[in-house]
Amino acid sequence: MAPVPPGVRLLVSFNRDQWYRALTFSLTFLLYTSFHLSRKPISIVKSELHKNCSSVSEQATNPSGSQLPALQSLHADVDCSWKPFDKSNYKQLLGAMDYSFLCAYAVGMYLSGIIGERLPIRLYLTVGMLTSGLFTCLFGLGYIYNIHNLGFYIFVQVANGLVQTTGWPSVVTCIGNWFGKGRRGLIMGLWNSHTSVGNILGSLIAGYWVSSNWGLSFIVPGLIIAAMGVVCFLFLIEHPNDLKSMYAQNTSPGKRQVKSWNGVNGHTEVYLQYKHNKLQSYDTELLLPQDSTRVPVQSVMVVKNESEPSAISFMGALRIPGVIEFSLCLLFAKLVSYTFLFWLPLYITKAAHLDAKKAGDLSTLFDVGGIVGGILAGVISDKLGKRATTCAVMLLLAAPTLYGFSMISEFGLGPTIVMLLVCGGLVNGPYALITTAVSADLGTHKSLKGNARALSTVTAIIDGTGSVGAALGPLLAGVLSAGGWSRVFYMLMTADFFALLLLLRLVTKELTSTKPRPVSAAELKEH
Fold first, then answer.
1. d(Cα 178, Cα 175) in Å, to the nearest integer?
2. Nearest CA-CA partner of 444 in 184, 194, 260
3. Residue 503 DSSP label
4. Separation of alpha carbons 198 and 39, rounded Å
5. What is the pLDDT of residue 223?
6. 29-43, 213-227, 344-358: segment of lowest average pLDDT
């Protein structure tokens, strides 16, 4: 008999629960990647709109000086200008579009978590992704149908900002339900790289069409997020307990096969229940091996609580220790991150004198650094058991790095690449840690007494507060950049300082605490 291939042995070594965890991890990763993928095109298209608007010249008139006929081709119109962004205040108009999206996102986020706890997350997330795809495509259709009304683009941005709030509380709740506190920083650091992966893919997709047909820079990402919404509807499992009914229906009491296990280590009651053909809960099934020999390796107690926990109130979530401090810290940390997200490509075109496509490609290095920074923040905080201290150190290093980037980026491509990677890691590291591991920790805080339904509300409060900063950052950047990019970087350094200041109480508490944070293998099974 031929030996079993090592790859097959690896596959069968994982139990059913581990496969479902892997499915949830991968699926939620891809779902939120598509959210960020659909947000990125606006930052890539900005520099193209500005180039078009600033190049209104002789092409708008014929050689005799008279105006061209009104029925000129769409291609020629785009080559000349794109109203209403053809005025000297184009930065303020572009900043207003960012602000409309992010302000709607910030307001909607507070409501999204509360609504999400009261609706099936799979359906809630599916509807949000389908409508987000619709509004993203509508923005691109403005190019196809030659729409030059600023109100149209503002409306699309506001509507898209509201429906995109369905994403973050939903995916964080799902991943928190499936993974316990053990190694949460590492797991969520890896998982949160979807933000940077989405930004990178969004930059590359938008950059491919930005110079020839910027409408497709929005339409293609819109179709992608809508398609992922269908995938979400078909495959997302919100909680391990959701599988109980499926396995109960697939197993009838009269057909239960009695295995040759007689009960070991005090498991006689579990064995008798199994032997007499009584249905097991999904939690019990995961603890019983699938082979013919049933030997438990440790004592197991399955505690059932028949009463459904009630959803936590907004004020109740605010009373959880650490929620207010981390929420306000994220406000300033996200201000810095989203200013880079929406304005970095345009800054590179001005500082490095590159075209829109090359600037968009180069800006992806900031997100590459963000992936590494998020993972490092998770690993370090797991090792030390000090989330706030990890964030504070990275914020302390980020401020001088931002100043260095503003100075070095004018000295060539090589130094710019290095500083983009370093800035991405230090800026996105705290942001990633707070929005994932910290949110999940606070959403399952001991003061909640096991009420997991608070996770969505806590996540929404923290990210909603952060989104206020995300709305202010690009708006302030649009205003301040008119007086020089150095003002923008001073604003970013100031925001980092305030973020660090807000964490000082928690850092002091962590450093003076004599109780190390316990991280054990048993915690992995908490949820």
1. 5
2. 184
3. T
4. 9
5. 97
6. 344-358
